[in-house]
Specification:
Blueprint lengths: L4 E2 L10 H8 L12 H14 L3 E5 L2 H12 L5 E5 L3 H4 L4 H6 L2 E5 L8 H10 L7 E7 L12 H13 L4 E4 L3 H8 L3 H5 L4 E5 L10 E5 L1 H13 L8 H13 L4 H18 L13 E5 L3 H10 L2 E2 L1 E4 L2 E5 L6 H13 L2
Helix pairs in contact: 1-11, 2-11, 3-10, 6-7, 12-14
């Protein structure tokens, strides 16, 4: 059948017409040699946006996160991270396979990690616990309804890590959503971390690609690790051109997605009281609990609406550029009669 509303993820968007035109005329070169001018421009603009010395274009956000583990840890190290973060759950165990590290997971029910939790991991090293090599945080926090970090809380949490001599990696796959929702700039958020990763394909409509930014020497080493992981790209300016359009013109409009997600959250809370708190939906993600997600997804599917799950009993709806107000209202009507 023909699906009219795809709420599975904000990665399902199609490149905009402006992106397609930019891709068609992109100036290119061999990026492995550092000779692709469009990639170089994208990396420079991103680094400036997040206030870092340099940036590296990578095929995916997962690779950007995995590079951080390679940069800052050694085999057998512990990475402190929230129990529901992307790096812990949704990267196929890559941290162990690629870097030989393990996670010390801490509570992140509201999407945040407490300073005390990090301090405990640091103190535990003096009691024969494994060495902590890195703290990793996520902003926005996807399973917590895309919760953005309040900047003061992020500063308090990362200060404990920095004072303990630990690097901090910020998984900012949807950092632009946090920027728009809170008014805190990406650079202010990134200042709390040693490295920051952002996706161009989540919400911004670019067809592929993410960026990792940090100090110049760190990113130079990341480029070497990217090659080892098979992430070296050649005439990548063809896709980087879409990323430039994304950075320059697609961030401000994320407010529309946030408004539409709030409408969906209201519909979910009305249909299944207690399953979702609309007050916690500040960006573009709605998650809710249901005893039979398969039944809900089947009913939505029958009405031309695609959705998905992120854990047993947890349904997710994600708004994005390719879902307009009419699509959201259609989804709300179907939700109102779903089982």
């Amino acid at each position: 059948m023909s699906y009219t509303v795809d709420l599975r993820s904000d990665t399902v968007t199609h490149p905009t017409d402006a992106m397609r035109r930019a891709m068609a005329r992109a100036e290119v070169g061999d990026d492995v040699y550092g000779e692709d001018p469009t990639v170089n421009q994208l990396e420079a603009e991103f680094a400036a946006r997040v206030g870092k010395g340099a940036a590296l274009y990578v095929p995916s956000g997962t690779m950007g996160n995995q590079l951080a583990f390679r940069l800052f840890t050694r085999p057998s190290d512990v990475v402190v991270a929230g129990a529901r973060q992307h790096v812990v759950i949704y990267e196929g165990g890559g941290a162990a396979g690629n870097s030989g590290v393990q996670f010390h997971t801490v509570a992140d029910d509201d999407g945040m990690v407490s300073p005390d939790a990090i301090q405990w991991a640091l103190d535990a090293m003096t009691h024969h616990h494994p060495r902590v090599g890195l703290v990793c945080l996520e902003n926005t926090h996807m399973p917590a309804n895309g919760a953005p970090w309040p900047i003061d809380r992020l500063r308090q949490t990362t200060r404990v890590a920095v004072d303990g001599g630990l690097p901090v990696h910020l998984d900012g796959a949807r950092l632009w959503h946090a920027e728009v929702a809170t008014g805190t700039t990406a650079a202010e958020y990134a200042a709390c971390a040693t490295t920051v990763m952002c996706c161009l394909s989540k919400g911004l409509c670019a067809p592929v690609g993410s960026l990792l930014a940090g100090p110049v020497d760190v990113i130079a080493e990341a480029r070497e690790h990217r090659a080892r992981l098979g992430g070296g790209m050649r005439q990548a300016g063809v896709i980087a051109a879409a990323g430039l359009v994304a950075l320059r013109s697609m961030v401000d409009r994320l407010a529309e997605d946030h408004r539409r997600a709030a409408r969906l959250a209201e519909a979910v809370a009305e249909r299944w009281p207690g399953s979702c708190d609309p007050a916690t939906v500040r960006t573009n993600i709605v998650t809710f609990r249901h005893p039979d997600p398969h039944a809900v997804l089947s009913q939505l599917d029958a009405e031309g609406i695609r959705a998905g799950t992120i854990a047993p009993g947890v349904v997710r709806l994600v708004t994005h550029h390719d879902v307009d107000d009419d699509g959201v209202e259609h989804a709300c009507k179907v939700i109102a009669t779903a089982g």
